[in-house]
Structures are given as C-alpha cells and as structure tokens.
Design goal:
Chains A, B: Keywords: DNA-binding, Transcription, Transcription regulation. The structure is a homodimer. Chain A is of the alpha/beta class. Chain A has three domains: 42 residues, lambda repressor-like DNA-binding domains (434 Repressor (Amino-terminal Domain)); 128 residues, Response regulator (Rossmann fold, 3-Layer(aba) Sandwich); 128 residues, Response regulator (Rossmann fold, 3-Layer(aba) Sandwich), CATH 3.40.50. In chain A, 46% of the residues lie in helices and 16% in strands. Chain A is built from twelve helices and twelve strands. In chain A, the strands form three sheets. In chain A, strands 2-1-3-4-5-11 form a six-stranded parallel beta sheet, sandwiched between helices. Chain A has a four-stranded parallel beta sheet with strand order 7-6-8-9. In chain A, α1 crosses α2, α5 packs across α12 and α10 packs across α11. The longest helix of chain A has 18 residues. Chain A is elongated. Chain A binds a DNA duplex through α2 and α4.
DNA sequence: GATGCAATTGTTAGCGCTCACAACTTTGAT
DNA sequence: ATCAAAGTTGTGAGCGCTAACAATTGCATC
C-alpha cells in the first residue's frame, strides 16, 4: 500500500480512502491512485483489514447432508449471493448431528471470526443449541420460523404438502397415505402436518402414516408392503428418492401407477421427470432460499434486528403418477 | 492474550508459545496458561495471526456443477479432511465456466489469502488458465493427471469404462454403443477412451458413439432413437442420470432391459439401485478423492513439490440391466 | 563458590491496514 | 480583502499476534 502511495504521490491513507470509496477524494487523485493500483497489481491484505475493522467479510455455512439435493442447492444460492456481495463463504459439513458436533463447527467459525452464519441442519434440536450462540454472531437458520433472536428462512413445506394432498383429493381419492421422512426432521414434520390438515379439512381421517428415512431403499421396502395390503388408493411420499423406491416396488408387485395407486413426491429433482412413469411432485426453489438467506443476514449485519422471516412458496408439478380414482 | 498472560502471571509471548506448542515451555507454566485460557474462554484472533505468519489456514475450493453427485461428494471429502487438519474451507461455485469466471474466482481466493486451492472444474481448458496461477499458490486440480507445476488427482475413469465395456463383452455383446458426456469434459473424454480401447482390444470396431449432455432428458431422447433403430445390443452410458432417461425411453418403446438391450451406467448414485430395473454401473469414491486432495495439498504446503498424482480406482457394480446376449 | 551452558521467560518491533484527528486548500459570502 | 465553512490530504496510533533477540534462571562442572 505504501508503494502504491509513493507511485501515486499521495499518502497511504488516501490510497485506503480510494479503496473504501470514501466520498472526500478528488477525482484526479482517485484516478491517479487507481492507475497506480493496476500498475502495481496491488491487492489489499484481508488479514490486516480484518484486524482493524473486526470484520472478516466471511460467512459461515453450516450444514448436514450437504450432498443431498436440497442442502447442496441452498449452498449454491448462498455462495452466489455472498460472493456477489463481496463476502467469502466458509463451509462446515456435519458428518453426524449432535449438540457437540454443532458446537464444534460453530466454534470453528468463531475462531475464523465469521461475520455471520447460515445454518442448514434440519433437526429441531439444533435451534436450542443455537440459542446460546446467536448473541455472539448473527445467525440465519434455514427451516426455522425464527424468533426475536434467530432469523428464520424456510420453504413452506406444509403448504407444499397441502398442495399435494389436495391434488389427490381433487382426483377423488379418499384413502391417502403418507410415507414421511424421519419425524425428527423439521421438514418431515411440516409435511406430515400438511398431509394431516388437508385430510381433516376434507373431513377424512389421516390414518395411514408410515415413517421413512428419505432413502430409495426405504421407499422400496415400504412400497412392497403397501402393494401387498392395498390399504390406500393414493400415496403422498415425502421426497422424490423414496418415491423412486415406491415406484420400483409397485412395478415389481404388479401394481400399476397411476391406475391402481396414485403417487405424489416432493422436491422435484431433475430426474423425477424421467421416472417410470414421470413423477407428480412438489417443486421448491432451494437456490432462491439460499440467496434470500444471505439477503436477510446482510440486512441484519447492518440493522442488528433479526428481520422478517423468509418463506419460499413451493408449487405442484403434475406429471403422470396421479390419476382420477377409477372405481 | 494480554489478559490471559496477566491471569497466568506470565508474558504474552509465553501464552503465544503455549498456543503454538513450542517445545521450551515448562510443564507447570504450560498448565497455568492453559487453565487461564479456559477460564477466560480465550480464542486467538485469526486475522492478527495471519497478518504476521502470512498463512490464512484457509483452503479454497473452486468448482462448477457443485450440486451434482460427483462434485458435491468431493467437496464433502475435502471439507472433512481440511477441517480435521485445522484448515478453513472457502468455496466458490462457478455458474458458468469461462476463463474469466475462473480467473475471477481465483482472484477472490487470492484476495482472501488462501494457502492452497483445490479445483474441480472438469473442462480441459481449465488447466491452461491455472498454469499462470500455480506459481503463486499451491494448487490441486481434480481430473488433471498433473505435471511439474500442477498437482493432479483423479478417478481413473478410463479404467472404469474398461470395466464396464469388458463386462458387456464377457456377456457376449459385440455391438456396444456409448452414450457419452459432453466431449469437452475431461471425464467424458476419458470414458470414451476406455470404451474405444476395450472394443479395439477385443478386435471390434467402436462405431456407435452418441454425444450426450449428462441429463436424464438427453438420455430419454437418445434412448428413443436407439430403441427405434436397434443398432446395438448393449449400451454403455456415461452417467446414471442419462441411464435413467434411457431406461424410461426403452420402457416406453417396449424394449426390454436387459433381455433386448443391456445397459451399464457410471457413478453409482444411491438411487441407481432402485431404477427399473436396478442399474449395473461403475462406482467411484468421490469422498476419498476429496480427502486425498487435501492430503496432497498439505504435503505440498510443507515440501513445496507437486507430489505424486492421486488416482482413485473405480469398481463395477453388477445389477440387473445387463444380461448375456440372448441369440 | 565461580563458571559455562542449556532451558526457560521477557522485551521489542512490526506485519498492513483503518480510525481519529490535525493540517492544509479551496470556495463563496460578506 | 476577510473570514468561515466545506472539501481534501496527511500524521500518528494501534488492532492482536509472532519472530528475533535479550535477559534471566537452573543446574552440572571445575
């Protein structure tokens, strides 16, 4: 920086002012400094800057199951928005979700001196752990509705489930089962709520609830059972991967989809349009969610307030696994 | 740090020595300092440390298509290994791959002062761009075989393709087509090479090569054509997603898999075991690849030499889309 | 007890930057 | 011409840490 100042014939402070876009610099000086900067290929030292400003220009992203469709796309959105805003993005992926691993990862971020943290750990217990931390560093929790301490951002999963189940109701189905995710996942719980509410609103009893684990393997296993007992005429499956397993089980068992049983999935992964048959499902824009998380976090860094929670609305994509109840 | 020193009754430098595990500190002093640290909940300031050591303890991960199966799992491995080694992981995902976007992202990392970079951008042009950078910061390129400047780490995709095609040859197939990835991807090119070599080694002509784009949609489209002309008895598809599309096309066209045509995929995503029918494919351990990248990078940070390139060996997973040629 | 040497601890400087403040220069109204 | 106010630039200090060196201590040896 001293070198740049010398070349431009000004003081180091003026160079700093140009770098930080301070208003009171005459345009000729600014120009001279900028020329010196490009001439010398100067880049300012982030460490020195953070040391004095107490800002690292870094946002930490903490997540579990980061290779899954939802989390990885959320990360994509977060990363893009953060970089556009001139922030660095540091990631920590959790192998295993326990209060300890979460605290470890948060400590890791604190050591790094991140300016804010986005958490994508979809288990309810997470938020209790986070309560202690949020006073030290601004925090956005994906999946939480937020409160006065914690900023929340979420896809309205209940709404998505409502869309799915109402679609089945519109087609005349009454015995509508639900193959859910693990009930200790926030997303799974919200989808169960939506399914249950849609049925009770229609005056029906929500009886057939099967807890799954998100995997295709589990969908296959449970699908085989359902094919055998035929207790439902339609099945709302909590994600597309399980739906894939169900589809295969039904195929093997000679249950025709959608003639015999209708299926609705959740997520709308790109592959779902090429299942046999193409899957009716609920689409969610995770990238948008990620981007808006950063928006919320940056707002908060300026204002200090948690801000209004974000809700992204899902939409139903009708394909070929759903049909009017035949008999 | 001054506070810790005061509580422990030593100088700040002694605290620093304890923190950095310097040998010449008496065990009583060390203990006293450590107690003071926990008592005060002291964490050392990374920015100040980097400023003087000129090390940021951060590794940058640059990738394109980061939400895809391969890249996202590589990131997982990289992240885990880096964090275990006490490094922070900064990510930059490329929306679009051009020399400019790559240079931008690298500049972003340089601004941050990363100690090393892992690049997962599977396009050949990438490496030319990186040539200029590698003198400034250690760099590991996934997909590159490496040279004296650049450390390389790669899954032996050609080997994987050989396995796939030889499996088909063993089953008696002779007309073996290949639905490849975009030819400007390194991975796609290596798989094409493997397919071609396996055939020529067997004294066969590698004729039916179709260039795809990795998507299920493309697999479906091309699958429909193949179903119509029946020019091959077996198809080696360059990834599982395209294979899914092919499977659906064949199903629609009434082509039975594997009786009429055998199919081998590539990647072994968890879902592939639940395709209809379950997909024979080639498994690659991306997480291991990521972990070993960090190993290579850390070695290099110490020794300065590019190190021996890493090769991860894929393996064939036989399921139900391949069968002995019937007639 | 004096001497030398190693082990341990303390002192000082400086990494590259921004902030607070001081000093100087311009502008426009009197 | 004179002055105040605003615009522009420079100076010094210090963020929290580590490296290099200086000083002190302990301990065996003569």
């Amino acid at each position: 920086m001293e070198d740049v100042a010398r070349v431009a014939g000004v003081s180091h402070q003026t160079v700093s002012r140009v770098l930080n876009n301070h208003p009171n610099v005459s345009s000729k000086t600014r120009e001279r400094v900028e020329q010196a900067i490009t001439e010398l290929g100067y880049r300012r030292n982030t460490a020195a800057r953070s040391l004095v400003t107490r800002r690292s220009q870094t946002i930490g992203v903490l997540g579990s199951e980061m290779a899954q469709y939802g989390p990885s796309h959320t990360l994509l959105g977060v990363q893009q928005a953060a970089r556009d805003a001139g922030y660095f993005v540091s990631v920590a992926a959790l192998r295993e979700v326990t209060p300890e691993t979460i605290k470890d990862a948060i400590a890791h971020f604190m050591d790094q001196g991140v300016d804010g943290i986005v958490v994508t750990v979809p288990h309810p217990g997470t938020f209790d752990v986070l309560k202690d931390i949020t006073s030290q560093v601004p925090l956005v929790a994906v999946g939480s509705i937020g409160d006065e301490h914690l900023s929340g951002a979420t896809v309205d999963q209940r709404q998505g489930a409502l869309l799915a189940v109402r679609h089945l109701l519109d087609l005349g189905h009454q015995r509508i089962g639900h193959l859910s995710g693990p009930t200790d996942w926030i997303d799974a719980a919200a989808r169960i709520d939506g399914w249950r509410d849609a049925l009770t609103d229609a005056g029906l009893e929500p009886t057939t609830l099967i807890e799954g684990d998100w995997s295709a393997e589990c969908g296959y296993r449970e699908g085989l059972k359902i094919a055998a007992d035929r207790s439902v005429s339609a099945l709302f499956v909590a994600n597309d991967q399980m739906a894939l397993g169900v589809l295969r089980a039904f195929h093997e068992a000679g249950v025709h989809v959608p003639k015999d049983i209708s299926i609705v999935g959740f997520d709308d992964q790109p592959e779902s349009a090429y299942f046999i048959p193409p899957l009716t499902t609920v689409a969610q824009d995770f990238e948008e969610l990620g981007q808006r998380c950063i928006g919320l976090l940056l707002d908060r860094l300026e204002s200090g307030a948690p801000g209004t929670p974000i809700t992204v609305t899902p939409r139903l994509v009708v394909r070929e696994t759903t049909a009017r109840l035949s008999n």
